[in-house]
Design a protein that fits this description.
With about 375 residues, the protein is of the alpha+beta class. The protein has twelve helices and ten strands. The protein has two domains: about 140 residues; about 190 residues, Adenine-n6-DNA-methyltransferase TaqI, Chain A, domain 2, CATH 3.90.220.20. About 5% of the residues have low confidence.
Length: about 375
């Protein structure tokens, strides 16, 4: 049996050949290496200081943009919404400052991620696209959702919900545009979870025919296939529910970055108990994608709601109670279209950074090889 830890013997070390320079040259080599290592240390320290200053500058400028947008009350498109960018962020002084120095500010992946989060924050505040006073207000959407819930309750497909807690002022993190509404997630969605069948009962996992999502798989934007599957017997004898495609899935706990991640099913699947499954009553694509973008934006906020010891967890109640700003349906469509466009641009920036980094690594490797040769 091979040893689990490979070692080198003392005898082999004794026999290892060493290139030995004349003593005066050894002195010169050591002095030069000390000089170059000190230079590398100074460069590394300067790079770390510059990176820290860069992060702080980018965040300060993005915070300034959000604050200026928040202080701009009128984001209503004139002439029935025909003015494409009327009142949107692109005319603000803070945005102009960012635009003028865009290619020097957004040169790292963390800075691009910060830009993404700022754009999503502006989107859910109603500051990314103009409002149109002719849009049907969000209150009408809520009325239709209430009617749909009542129908499902009458048909026995949905349990009657308890009255939802009133949204306190402290939960409203900014002033809503006209025709928007604050809502709790449970008002617009049915939120459930899953279970883990007993591992020692092999009949729960064979035949493996039913997709079973674990929290780690929420790192994907969409879930096309699951790593694990369960059997029809597991579905019959445990608290598993098969959720349809376009259900949103949030990780309630998990190691590292997992907790708070959101994904979307593109298949029928059940989940384990570490996931919350969100089925929106309005199944329109723009509505679903707006809600998903809201949770992407809220990733850090949601993680802060977790409680527990060494590994803090969320629970289903906290997910259900999440407070969302709900725009009119027509504006949700405009928001999603604009966010899609801007996220694609951010992803292109990241791809170029990756390509440039790979090129730099290749050049550095070539130069080192030539220097050694």
């Amino acid at each position: 049996m091979a040893a689990s830890q490979v070692n080198i013997s003392q005898e082999k070390l004794k026999l290892a050949p060493i290139p030995l320079a004349p003593l005066p040259e050894q002195h010169r080599i050591v002095a030069k290496v000390d000089e170059l290592m000190a230079l590398c240390d100074r460069l590394e320290a300067q790079q770390a200081d510059a990176a820290s200053a860069h992060v702080q500058l980018v965040q300060a400028l993005l915070d300034s943009l959000i604050q200026e947008a928040s202080d701009t009350a009128d984001l209503t498109a004139k002439d029935g919404g025909n003015a494409e960018n009327a009142g949107a962020i692109f005319g603000l002084a803070s945005w102009q400052r960012l635009a003028e120095h865009f290619h020097t500010l957004f040169t790292t992946e963390p800075s691009i991620d910060a830009l993404k989060q700022a754009l999503l924050q502006l989107a859910v505040m109603g500051k990314l696209v103009p409002q149109d006073p002719n849009d049907e207000p969000a209150s009408e959407l809520l009325k239709r959702i209430a009617e749909e819930k009542a129908r499902l309750v009458a048909e026995g497909k949905l349990k009657k919900q308890k009255p939802l807690a009133e949204i306190a002022e402290v939960e409203k993190s900014f002033e809503l545009p006209e025709n928007w509404e604050w809502v709790r997630l449970e008002e617009i969605a049915q939120v459930g979870t899953g279970a883990t069948p007993l591992r020692t009962n092999l009949k729960y996992f064979e035949p493996a025919t039913i997709n079973w999502v674990t929290s780690g798989e929420t790192s994907q934007d969409h879930i096309h296939e699951t790593e694990q599957k369960v059997s029809p017997l597991a579905l019959t004898e445990t608290n598993l529910t098969v959720y349809p495609p376009h259900t949103l899935v949030i990780a309630m706990y998990g190691q590292g970055k997992t907790r708070g991640q959101i994904s979307e099913l593109l298949i029928d699947a059940c989940t384990n108990q570490a996931c919350a499954a969100i089925q929106l009553f309005d199944q329109g694509e723009s509505h679903r994608r707006y809600v998903k973008y809201f949770f992407v934006k809220s990733y850090d906020d949601i993680r802060l709601l977790a409680a527990g010891g060494a590994q803090p967890n969320l629970n289903l109640g906290k997910i259900k109670e999440t407070v969302l700003p709900l725009p009119p349906l027509a504006e949700q469509h405009r928001i999603v279209a604009k966010v899609d466009q801007l996220m694609a641009l951010c992803n292109q920036l990241k791809a170029r950074l990756s390509q440039a980094r790979q090129l730099n690594e290749q050049l550095a490797s070539t130069l080192v090889e030539q220097a050694v040769a």
